[in-house]
Amino acid sequence: MVLRVLVPSAALAHDISGPGVQAIIWHIDTDTSPAPAADVLVTERPRFPAHRSRVSAIPGLRHVHLLSIGYEWVLEHLPAGTTLSNSRGAVEDATAEHALALILASLRDLPVAAQQQHRHHWSPLWTSSLHGSVVMVLGYGGVGQEVAARLEPFRPAAVLPVASRQRTTATGVQVHETQELPALLPRADVVVVTLPHQESTERLVDAAFLAAMGDGALLVNIGRGAVVDTDALVAELQAGRLRAALDVTDPEPLPAGHPLWDAPGCLLTPHMAGNTHEFLRRSAALTVEQVRRLASGREPLHLVRSTPCS
Ligand SMILES: NC(=O)C1=CN([C@@H]2O[C@H](COP(=O)(O)OP(=O)(O)OC[C@H]3O[C@@H](n4cnc5c(N)ncnc54)[C@H](O)[C@@H]3O)[C@@H](O)[C@H]2O)C=CC1
Ligand SMILES: O=C(O)C(=O)COP(=O)(O)O
Predict the structure, then answer these.
(1) What is the pLDDT of residues 145-170, one digit of tens each?
(2) Does residue 156 line the site of ligand 1, with CB under 6 A?
(3) Are both 3-90+276-305 and 128-268 of the same fold?
(4) I want to staple 139 with a disulfide (CB 3.0 to 4.6 A). Which of 22, 115, 144, 205 is the partner?
(5) Contact of 232 with 212, CB cutoff 8 Å
(6) What CATH code is assigned to 3-90+276-305?
(7) pTM of the shown model
(8) Where does the record place the D-isomer specific 2-hydroxyacid dehydrogenase NAD-binding domain (predicted)?
(9) Would the pLDDT of 225 be above 80?
(10) Burial 118-133 (b: 16+ CB within 10 A, else e)
(11) Atom in ligand 1 nearest the alpha carbon of residue 222
(12) Whose CA is nearest to atom 20 of ligand 1?
């Protein structure tokens, strides 16, 4: 039996082609015609929410493999009986690196310096240091742990990991739980959100959360936009009380005229934390391995949903 696999690019089609595999190029954002029948869909996260439902119209679909990690967008569109896997391990490094870039750029006011450069204006700035600061890492999974590891060489006063449950890791790290947030938030100079979007995390960073952060503290979001109450954040930024560096926003893409574009003290990047050439190579290699496994009837790697949904 030949495994029919939809892939978003000619390069991936080339990589996965082989005995027992038929690669078909179909991109969820750009191919507006209905997808051809296929056993497997390999896909990126659609850039536009309206394109998500295209997954549910693929005849014969049995497995979806995501080229990234976040899978919340696909769950409600998975046809019954379909299993799901993601690219765990391929993108955490790049994402954590971007978090550090956002923290350092914000603390050292690089966007202000860049604006000065565009105006050919030379005026030294006084900024804040990561050394000696307290950094909360909210969400302590694959991405959160990589962020925490990258913070250590900067010698912060403390790194406070927060996740769903309290525990001490095998390496002795004390992970706090969300119930402790009211006590911990006033201590944090920087809060880095690495949470997935699910019912329990939606708007977890709400007006009360933001109000508990200290004056001048920095909120960084590299998880999902919907974890933050955007209106409440805009209000804090416009009041000049907090700063923010956001790779993910709600809504996304950010529409023209949205108040976040020009909010004071807000650095925005367009959901690009994971986008490195190295990530592409790693996820391509993972996809080749995944397709080989599926073609030979073996258990797929990194299953997110192992029991076919009904
Ligand atoms: N900006 C970007 O380009 C990228 C964003 N991401 C996002 O980062 C997210 C996290 O990825 P991973 O670290 O691999 O996920 P993971 O599943 O390994 O870790 C999630 C963490 O969140 C915690 N958590 C879950 N629900 C919680 C709750 N209600 N309260 C407190 N903590 C809670 C878990 O305990 C765990 O520590 C992805 O789901 C994706 O949305 C991932 C890659 C790139
Ligand atoms: O892995 C994720 O969840 C990410 O957000 C990054 O990749 P994406 O932009 O979703 O293709």
Answers:
(1) 999 999 999 999 999 999 999 999 99
(2) no
(3) yes
(4) 144
(5) no
(6) 3.40.50.720
(7) 0.96
(8) 100-273
(9) yes
(10) eeeeeeeeeebebeeb
(11) 1
(12) 141
